[in-house]
Amino acid sequence: MLTGLRFTSICYKVSAIVSNVRGSIAKCENIYRVASLNCLYTPLDQRNYTTALTRHEFNILRKAATGGRGRRGTRVKKKAVDFNAAVDKFKWPGYNAPLESTKLGKRTSLSSTEEHQEDQPSFSPRVDNYRSTLKKDLGRGWTGFGWGGRSLGSPAAPDGTILDEFYSTCIELRRVTNQTSGGKRSRMRALVIVGNKNGAIGYAFGKGQDVRTALRKAKNRAVNYLCHVDRCDGHTIFHDIKTKYKKTHVKMEKRSKGEGLRCHRAITSICELAGIADLRAKVIGSTNPGNIIHAAFKALQCQETFQQLSDRTNLKVVEFRPENGYRPVVVASPSSGVALKSKKSRIIAPHHLEMDNI
Known about the structure:
Blueprint: H1 4-40, H2 55-66, E1 90-91, E2 108-109, H3 113-119, H4 124-138, E3 151-153, E4 167-180, E5 183-195, E6 200-208, H5 211-222, E7 226-228, E8 241-245, E9 248-254, E10 261-262, H6 265-274, E11 279-285, H7 289-301, H8 306-313, E12 317-320, E13 328-332, H9 336-345
Parallel strand pairs: 10-11
Antiparallel strand pairs: 1-2, 3-4, 4-5, 5-6, 6-7, 8-9, 9-11, 12-13
């Protein structure tokens, strides 16, 4: 049997061995943590790879991996240069006058304002005239920023003759892109309507590489696609109309004189060029400008006048108006040929008068 002293010494040795083992284990864990942290936070350029790629090639691969695909660069706008800013009537030697040894760095006043104007750049007056003319011709439009609603003047015939009795308005101007074998091809597309404010209107599309070309083509082409619009008393439509084109629904309502135009801004431009002063219109569904224009033209062309309604029904058309005290007023009667033909068709044959057929 072990004595008490011997058993105590053995316990001390075992505890020492255990403590040494624990210390070595803690040291190993600390070394492993430091090594792992060094691996995690080592910069990419300082790591050693057993490959044949150089550091420059790795930088290129890294940019390709982290960079976005298909990102378009921001367009750099050219700053407008004001050539008339900070203009004074002095000559600065070495800047806008010959350098003289006696008057180095001194400025001298010009003799007169005329001489000062002659020294100014020759293109500044041309820039001023261009800006003022452009602003006067285009007008404000619907928003003051875009091309919608701007007046484009009178169109021209194929021989170059200006048609002064017609007016034109831009409805839409946008950029369109066509994918070809050589890449994407971008052009400008304009939608323009023309009219004489007396029942004749038309619209057309035009494409071009720049804005002016597209507008000019659309304006001159719209004159070749004119149609006539019937107007009731010269200021409104004959009856309420509902039309549809693709996903666009247009409802037009007849209004009395003096109520004005309460409709979509594109339809308002059409009515102004057609000579319609009183109308209410509602657009339901898609508000694509091309669809709205097509549906509005379709609605105005499918009107039925009072005379056409009378000839179709072979009846007299009577209208009740509040200004007349809602008394019936005959506005159309069947034509003579139509009435005679309808009368012959209503003659009752003798065999129809038999009792068996009644």
